Inverse folding.
């Protein structure tokens, strides 16, 4: 089977699960991984035949995909902010919208701090470590702490930090328990893409997300979409340094509620839309 034939084969096999355009993109990702060819080279060599070993790998990957396993977990890789991150079912798959949050943080640091001025950053709910690691890689003088309740997620985050050469302190703690806060210290910036999905929203979620990605990182535990945002606000009042800022990724359905929560507690806030025109990011200033 040639590379081009393999793309058609995979796309057709996934037609019952994914939209045609998405199925073709997934097929191309698989073939890039299997052949080791870049997209341009793969197009130029579209008639090249797969080896027997490559075909066997393709069929194994396809079987996993047909069981609704996301392609990023199948390949064990997801790119975020230009960096390759290892991912498995212990962590959420990084989303493009979260890259926009990182862009906001980097723009703020560039405006607010000199190139040699230390910046202490806390990420609440680090998961794969993608936000913390991207920030540390882009801001050499940053001192980044990534916090998560899941030890399995922290294993993934530490693996990514090591492979990407990032110096990040990872801490296991339940952020909802205020007793854990004092040991963390004080920070200039707090960044978070916390759990914010409520149980009624399950109905609208794709099977490959609902059945595979960690519910601990997706859903609030008490069906309160403000659960983590409220705690982050309380933490920031106590442990954010003067002139500090909070950067949050939001549930678009409750974005104004989150903004109102911070406004009521004396913060100046800016609400931003993502590239899909959803109200997705909130920046809060002292």
């Amino acid at each position: 089977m040639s590379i081009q034939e393999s793309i058609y084969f995979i796309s057709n096999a996934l037609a019952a699960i994914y939209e045609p355009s998405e199925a073709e993109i997934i097929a191309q990702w698989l073939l890039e991984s299997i052949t080791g060819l870049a997209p341009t080279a793969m197009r130029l060599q579209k008639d090249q035949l797969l080896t027997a070993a490559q075909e066997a790998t393709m069929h194994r990957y396809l079987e996993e995909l047909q069981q609704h396993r996301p392609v990023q977990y199948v390949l064990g890789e997801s790119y975020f902010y230009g960096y390759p991150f290892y991912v498995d079912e212990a962590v959420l798959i990084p989303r493009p919208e979260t890259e926009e949050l990182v862009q906001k943080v980097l723009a703020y640091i560039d405006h607010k701090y000199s190139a040699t001025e230390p910046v202490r950053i806390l990420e609440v709910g680090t998961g794969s470590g993608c936000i913390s690691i991207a920030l540390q890689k882009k801001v050499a003088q940053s001192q980044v702490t990534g916090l998560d309740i899941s030890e399995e997620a922290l294993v993934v985050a530490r693996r990514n930090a090591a492979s990407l050469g990032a110096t990040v302190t990872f801490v296991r703690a339940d952020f909802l328990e205020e007793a854990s806060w004092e040991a963390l210290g004080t920070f200039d910036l707090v960044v978070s893409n916390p759990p914010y999905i409520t149980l009624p929203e399950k109905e609208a979620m794709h099977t490959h997300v609902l059945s595979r990605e960690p519910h601990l990182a997706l859903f609030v535990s008490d069906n309160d979409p403000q659960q983590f945002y409220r705690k982050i606000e309380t933490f920031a009042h106590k442990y954010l340094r003067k002139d500090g800022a909070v950067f949050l990724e939001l549930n678009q359905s409750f974005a104004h509620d989150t903004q109102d929560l911070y406004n009521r507690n004396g913060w100046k806030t800016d609400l931003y839309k993502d590239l899909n025109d959803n109200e997705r990011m909130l920046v809060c200033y002292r």
User: Anything to note?
Assistant: The first strand starts at residue 78 and ends at 80. The CA atoms of residues 90 and 153 lie 5 Å apart.
